[in-house]
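Progress note, sequence design subtask.
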């Protein structure tokens, strides 16, 4: 999901418009909870955009996100008094997909000297580092500061918020989760103007500056940190 590609904006605008039409229909003719409907549509939009990146990315994200929530619920329900001790179990499980896709070949084949073909040429799921470490931070914040476990729908919107899931930043629970808990679809012209300005600046930095300056970069050595910088 490259925000600088026209395809992303076509999917975002088209999908968003379709969901908003569905929202109007359901609110007018269906007996639905408006708050729950808005949050469900936001999650649908985010997961749909993620699935368009690749199905591997989609399912790995679901595994990490749902596994984190289930693991946290189990710790809080059965081991609340000693919850911090179980971080040594849950956190490695959260990191396991990241380790497998990103470091499995290096550690197992190159360092340990094994010869597992299945680890060679693995395609790293988009955004796996960002959303994995965000889930780790969520678990630590919840247990260390003894915060209540949010509702599953709010948590999934926190975990899968599409503007930051594939490229960061890694949002802490206190910053993003309250916004997801209060989320409603609203038309706020001043906020739209402010957001559009930041989007325009970001696209200018990426498409006009970075893409044009990249042609002058030296890619001869990707192992020399000074040349990379």
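Output:
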């Amino acid at each position: 999901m490259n925000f600088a590609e026209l395809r992303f904006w076509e999917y975002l605008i088209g999908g968003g418009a379709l969901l908003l039409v569905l929202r109007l229909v359901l609110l007018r003719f269906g007996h639905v909870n408006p708050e729950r409907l808005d949050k469900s549509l936001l999650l649908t939009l985010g997961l749909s955009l993620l699935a368009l990146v690749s199905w591997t990315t989609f399912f790995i994200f679901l595994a990490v996100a749902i596994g984190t929530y289930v693991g946290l619920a189990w710790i809080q329900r059965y081991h609340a008094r000693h919850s911090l001790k179980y971080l040594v179990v849950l956190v490695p499980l959260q990191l396991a997909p990241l380790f497998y896709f990103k470091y499995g070949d290096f550690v197992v084949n190159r360092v340990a000297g094994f010869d597992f073909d299945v680890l060679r040429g693995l395609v790293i799921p988009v955004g796996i580092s960002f959303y994995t470490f965000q889930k780790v931070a969520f678990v630590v914040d919840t247990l260390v500061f003894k915060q209540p476990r949010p509702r599953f729908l709010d948590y999934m919107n926190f975990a899968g918020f599409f503007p930051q899931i594939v490229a960061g930043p890694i949002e802490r629970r206190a910053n993003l989760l309250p916004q997801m808990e209060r989320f409603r679809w609203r038309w706020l012209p001043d906020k739209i103007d402010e957001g559009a300005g930041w989007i325009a600046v970001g696209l200018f930095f990426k498409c006009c500056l970075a893409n044009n300056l990249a042609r002058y970069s030296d890619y001869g050595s990707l192992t020399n940190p000074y040349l990379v910088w």
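Residues 24 and 185 are 11 Å apart (CA to CA). Work on this subtask will continue into the next period as scheduled.
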